[in-house]
Write a structure and sequence with these properties.
mainly alpha; homodimer; Arc Repressor Mutant, subunit A; elongated; DNA-binding
Chain lengths: 116, 116
DNA sequence: CGCGAAAGAAACGCTTGCGTAACGATCCGC
DNA sequence: GCGGATCGTTACGCAAGCGTTTCTTTCGCG
């Protein structure tokens, strides 16, 4: 089943999801942070700071800071790579998985309401 | 045509859209700002600071600041309401409409790629 | 009038994010 | 085992966002 959206459906979906998310969660992640979080959980590991920076097209400190913030929120974790101790591998957490699961539900919910 | 998404489709769509948006636009709007912007353009006017604050479940200064920022970016405009000069009505701009149009295209694009 | 209520902005101190640049730790080829 | 390259973090000065509180303007009703 391909996803085919009209412009009004696309923006309407984004609108209702953003609104619902803002109401439900006072943590106001930036678009960058959200993109990083989703990337970590949806793309097969391993993930490194450098890799994420390249993927997002941003500098490394941006990734470090985002990981600091989301790490403090418990959404991700970090660990040194034992095979190359210069690297840091980014690890998923139960809390992060839960967060995205709820976010996914929210999208589906709003998508269902969008045109029924 | 109702929108029906699987969890993996929902998060996958958000992932690719966030990623593409981050790459394409260095303005890193917060989720709140995006929600406000979408609300202004998708819901029939008039829009006021107070109304937006109630809709988003945030305080009035949050809206004032968001409008300051997005106003400076040219995405929205403000004008006093002549019938009740305490009110400010929020106005759309050509640039803002264009911004959202491009954003909608991006969603549709990514949605199409998502499962083909 | 006059005065409280309402709307939005401005002020305050604080936190968080930014880009650039510098820094320690680690790897690797010679 | 040393010197340059690579990886992630930290430091710095700055801009932007936050919540709370305090104006300023305007309304509306007695």
């Amino acid at each position: 089943m391909p996803i085919e959206l009209t412009p009004s459906q696309a923006l309407g979906l984004w609108h209702s999801v953003s609104l619902a998310q803002v109401r439900v969660d006072s943590r106001d992640l930036t678009l960058r942070q959200l993109a990083i979080l989703l990337h970590i959980y949806l793309v097969p590991p391993p993930h490194t700071v450098r890799g994420l920076a390249a993927t997002l097209g941003v500098t490394k400190p941006v990734i470090t800071r985002a990981l600091d913030t989301m790490g403090a929120l418990g959404l991700v974790d970090r660990a040194r790579d034992d095979r190359d101790r210069r690297n840091v591998v980014i690890k998923r957490t139960v809390e992060g998985a839960l967060y995205l699961e709820k976010f996914g539900d929210l999208i589906i919910d709003q998508g269902r309401k969008q045109l029924k």
